[in-house]
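Incident review: delayed structure delivery

Summary: a single-chain prediction request sat in the queue longer than the usual turnaround. Root cause was a stuck worker, restarted by the on-call engineer. No data loss occurred. The affected request and its eventual output are reproduced below so the record is complete for anyone auditing the incident later.

Affected input:
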Amino acid sequence: MTPLTPFTPQQLQACLARLGLPPQPPAATLQTLERLVDAALHHLPFENLDVLLARPVAIEPEAVFAKVVEGGRGGYCFELNSLFARLLASLGYRISLLVARVRWGMPAEVERTQQSHLLLRIELDEGPYLADVGFGGANPPRPLPLVIGEELPGGWRIAPHDGDELELALHTASGWQALYRFTLQPQHWVDYLPRNWYTSTHPDSVFRKSLRVALSEGDRRLTLLDGQFGWRDAKGNAEQRRILDVDELIEVLRGRFHLRLPPATAEALREPLARLL
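Output delivered after worker restart:
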C-alpha cells in the first residue's frame, strides 16, 4: 500500500469529516482542491510530538490514517502530505509524489540540504499544480500552479535554480525567502522510508531538537516553536508571546492546535517540553 492507494468508502467519509467537510465525495476540480487544501491547513496540525517522545513515526498509510484521522493528531510532511495524497487519489485526482530539499531558515552558506520534504504534484484540466499541507508555519495557503519564473498570487514564485532543480520562494519584507528546492521527477514511496527515519531519529534532525507546531485559524497561521507562540496573517500582521509553563504549553497544544492528547501522552510530554522552555 502507498499514498496513491485510495481509501475505502468508510475511510473517505471519515477523512472528509476530519477536515470538517460534508460526507459526499466532491468532484476532482481545481476549486475542490483549493477547498481541500484550506480545510487540511485548518484541521490537520503540523506537529512533531512523537519525535520528541522518541516514539517511532510510522508513515505506512494505515498507520497515518489511524493517528491523524482516528486519533485526532497531526504530523509532519511524510504523514500529512501522504494522507492528503490518499484523499486526492480517492477522489480521482492524478497525483505524483515529489521530494524537496528544505531551505527555509537555512543559512545561505549551506549549499545543499537532504531530501527531507514530501510534496505533491496534481494534474488538472487547468494544468499541473503543486499542493503541500505539511510544511509548517510558512505553508503555502493554496495549491500553486506549476508556472516557472512568474510571481504568483500571494507573493509566491517557482523559479529555476540549478540544473533541473526548481525553488519555491515567498516574497517577504526582507526579500525572497526560499522554502525548498525540488525536481519534477516522480518518486517511489519506498524511498521516503529512510528519509522519514532520518527526520524522526537522527540527532541532527531539527525535529529532535525543538517543538514545531502550526495550524491555520481563520485568516491567521498559528505557530509554536518551543515556547514561542504566535500568529501571522496574509497582510503581515503578527503577534508573539513566550510560554514559560509546561501546563500552559500543553493547554495551548490542546486548545489552540486542537491536538487530542490523552492524559498519559500529556504526562509523557512534560519532561521533553520542559527542556525546551
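Verification: Residues 210-275 form a domain with the Arylamine N-acetyltransferase fold fold (CATH 3.30.2140.10).
Action items: add queue-age alerting; document worker restart procedure.
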